[in-house]
Fold this sequence. Notes:
This protein is an alpha+beta fold. It is built from six helices and 13 strands.
Amino acid sequence: MDQKILENRSYDVRVLPSVDDEHGGVMVEIKEPMDPNNFNMLLRCSLSHWKMQEKKAVWVKLLIEFANLIETTVKEGFVYHHAEPHYLMLVYWIPKTFSTIPANATHRVRIGAIIMNDKRELLAVLEKHGRFKGTGVWKIPSGVLEEGEDIFSGAIREVKEETGIDTEFIDVVGFSWMPVSEYAAQPFAKEHSVFKYAADFCLAKVDNGYTGFTPLPISSYFDEHISYLYAKKEDLNL
């Protein structure tokens, strides 16, 4: 395997080849056989290097034929994230903060939070990480639901994480609003129908009394867990 050699004035640092991801982390895919001892040394040096670079998550993808490296990887603090028939994905969270690595699942639900005021203005954000980083695209707060999380709870959480706005607060400081028409006029929004529909829903709600689905708490016969049914509340006379 070819290792990347980084010169550091008085010494050389050998690190595993990696690719930066969209969220401030790195991804490593082992493609050639390696001796576990050599791999362990490279992995330790790599982790030290990535810590100095203030990376977040380190992902290591091991094909099934390199299963002999699993024990070494786990001993360095990596944990299993998910597995497929022909590979295992392990991950390590570097910062001394709460890990934001999403749990693996059979599917993912992405949500966007549309927040408007009485001036027909929309709360929009510029992403620091992710596919929109550096594009100049203003977008609604969005993200992926956590395992077992309800849709409306996820929307509230994402707004809090991305803007610092708590829905229980009255005053908002340091955030700007933009007209819905300006949001919808962005070239990116015009090219992707989901953004256009989001703007259309906003205007339909304000101008035409459009109503969407409201979360209604329901109990289960099988356990005490409260879940939610999404329906048009006004049509049910509730």
